[in-house]
Amino acid sequence: MNADAAWDALNAVLHDYTPPCDGRVLFTADELTDEQRATCAVVCATCPIADLCGSYAAAAKVDSGFWAGADRSPKRKRATKTTAPGGSRHSRK
Predict the structure, then answer these.
(1) pLDDT tens, residue by residue, 30-44
(2) Among 28, 61, 87, 90, whose Cα sits 20 to 30 Å from the Cα of 9?
(3) More confident position, 19 or 87
(4) Into how many domains does the chain fold?
């Protein structure tokens, strides 16, 4: 699914449903603590439209905020991608 189709599907539901993340600053913050990420994940786990949210975030390659149970901030991605199995750090070239 492309980003436009994913947005259309999500947006159609948002006309009749307000997700539990709506208006909560944590979901748009630049940096989150582990505790804040856990809080967001709990909220997403109970959201009936998390699948649509996640589909849009993946299709649009969203690179900020907390979407469908995942922290999509660049710093979080970078830290995740540069940590090798066993916890050692390596550089990406």
Answers:
(1) 889 999 999 999 999
(2) 28
(3) 19
(4) 1
